[in-house]
């Protein structure tokens, strides 16, 4: 039995897929080996097959590509304002902060408060 590698970087797993695919290892066997080393939750068999198809189509980058999407509204100034509000009232609730900062989701507020 091999030692399990916990929390591998995505590019690490993709590099292994690319390496084994280059050696003509079948996707099912690649998935079996990934699960053996990285654990059950590493990646589904379908995702391995998707990556193998991409590498066979000429895709060579193992890193996530920059995606356009909704830009984050959270910046240092906003976090500073949030910290100021928290210092004003130490008995704050996330609901109270949601009322003060409606542009930030409840989940993101919770994450900011937890990490401060």
UniProtKB/TrEMBL annotation:
Gene3D superfamilies documented for this protein: 1.10.10.1450
Cellular component per GO? nucleus
Q: Which PANTHER family match?
A: MARINER MOS1 TRANSPOSASE-LIKE PROTEIN (PTHR46060:SF1)
Query: Where does this one sit in the cell?
Result: Nucleus
Instruction: Give the protein name, as stated in the record.
Output: Mos1 transposase HTH domain-containing protein
Q: Which organism is it from?
A: Araneus ventricosus
Which Pfam family, just one, is annotated for this protein? HTH_48
Q: Which SUPFAM superfamilies match?
A: Homeodomain-like
Domain Mos1 transposase HTH spans what residues? 14-58
